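Any chance you could type out some protein's one-letter sequence along with its backbone structure tokens so I can compare the two?
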Amino acid sequence: MGRGISMLGPYALIPEESLWALIPLAVYILVSFRPKVHALTIAMIACLFGYILTGQTPAMTGALVVKSLGSTLGLIGFIIMCGAGLGSVMSEARVSHTIVYWIVKYIGVTTEKRAILCVIVTTTLVCGLLGTLAGGCAIVAPILIPIVAAAGLKPATVACLFQSSGETGLIWGPFTGPTVALLAITHLSYGRMMLWAALPYGLIWLTVIYFCGLRIQHDPSYDERYELDTAEQTTLGITAQEKRVTLAFLIGFVGLLTFSMITHQKTAFTVFVMLALALVICLFKSLDMSVMFRAFAKGMGSMAGTFLLFILLNMMLEYINYGHGFEALGKILVSFAGEGSRMMVVIMGTLVGSFGVNGGAVAQLQVTHGLFASAVKTASVPMEFWALALICGSRVTTSIYPGSNMIAPMGLARSESLKAMLFGGWSVSMTSIAFIIVWSWFAMPIFFPI
């Protein structure tokens, strides 16, 4: 949105750029810690605050709803619904059952710790290859949930693992948008960027979220449990037809995954993947297409609430942007950096990107770099360390503020525990920020002396 066009309504209570615009987000975060409050209720309360503060009218609100339906969050919400639809078809054809049987028998995912590792490795790999968190989680969720549910994992645990593992995949994948943007900004090679920035950062995230998962598993306050229907539960045998259908599904899955990686498909391609895999199952299972689509629609309907949540969440973020709340916060943080020491520039760049810049990861990388480009050059900050700051700044935001990268994994994991998501997100984020502070102070003078 251009700065010359004000989206504040005629009865706005805040100026065009103000920290007051962050009140809806603060309300969202605070209310999310209250027990037993539905996510839709939290989002609606936050939207009401945004509506009043920005002085909106009913007509302006209607236009915002239409805009939100066509937003990225709206698309991600639809992808989640399609993922649930595919999961329903897989259950109808006993594909999930067969995959559970194979993995439990040949890999032995029978304990909580091994199940947690299974989720971490699979989600990191798929999201890194697809280049999308929501799309990757939507594809692996129907396969992994029956497996980890059998091993005793809670939905809240899986949701946290989905997000942090998927975020790690996005910074490790060689052709993801954030990686390509980061390489263009820093002019580092992929190998050097991985060695000095992405690999250590990602390993920290995965290690921390592993222990967060164990903590959630043993915390009785997280009382969600998976309730799988009969078709999703593991039994002792599989038929020859189920093997053929599952093999066809896996071949189609790998083929579409390979195609998406080679052709650098966007998030919207995931919708095609869901429908194509459902049709593959229909063909090899010899299902009537009407039966398949009834199962698909039933699964989609189970995620209607999540879709509505995404629309409300987009509206809340738009209200914040109307008052330029994130920009106001960013300016305050920027004023503390200036042309100070190399360590201070790296630390402040990390904090501004993490807490003061909101938007897509690629946009956050570019905005944060633009804010500090002159200071980085003046202080002779090594690009290897600046890349680490940019990665942290673009990833922390989605882990500490409720947004699409938090809500999507939560919905796909069939969880409603925002508290667990914030616990996992803040744990990995604060640990990584602490690492950057210590690493910049200790390692920069040793490996990159002036």
The chain has two domains: 72-224+238-306, 326-447. The mean pLDDT is 83. The chain has 20 helices and no strands. Residues 72-224+238-306 form one domain.
